[in-house]
Amino acid sequence: GLPGVDQLEGAAKAIGDLTTPLRDREVLAAQLIELNMDDAAQRRLAGEGVIFASVASSTQMHKLLSIIDAFPGFLRAIEQQGLVPDLGKRIEKRLNKQWKKIVEAMHDPAHDRHRLRLLIKRSRYGAEAYPRLSRIGKSMRGELKNAQDDLGHWHDLLQWLTQAEKQADLAPLVAQWRTQLVQAERKADKTLARLLKHIDER
User: pTM for this one?
Assistant: First the structure.
C-alpha cells in the first residue's frame, strides 16, 4: 500500500460510491429530456438540492476534505525522509499492475464488459494523474477514453433497462433501449478490438 495515497484514494472512492446513484439519475433525466419526457425527468431530479446538501455534509465528505488538508504535510514528510523516489516507484508499480489487468482482461474472450470498463477507467485516470510514471502514452490514453465512453454508454442503457422493469413510466422506451443496447454492444466490441490491436502492437 501507499500510506497517505491509499487513504486519499479510499476517501475519494467513498464519495464516488455516495454520488454514483445521483449521477445515474442525472444521466437518465438528461436522456428523458432529450426524448421530450420532461415530466418523467423532473420526477427524477426532484429533491436533488437536498440530496447534494446531504452529500456535502456527509461523514465521507468531511473525511475526504480532512485528508486533502493533511496531504501537503504528508508529502513534505515523505520528502524530508528522502522517500520520494521510493514513493514514485511504488506508484509506478501500481500503475503497471493496473495495466497488466487490462491486458489480461482484453485477451480473455469471455471478458466481462462491466469489469473491463472499471479497469479501463481506473488505469486511464491513473495514467493522467501520474503521466511521468505511467507507460501509457497519449495515443493509448485516447484509445482508453474511446473504450471507456463506449462501454459507459452500453452500461447506461443496461441500467435504464433494469430500472424500466420497476418504473412504469419508462416502459414505452424499453423496445428502443433494447435496440440501442445491441448497437452499443457492437460499437463497444469494435472499439475494444481496436484497443486490443493497439495493445498487441506495443
Answer: 0.81
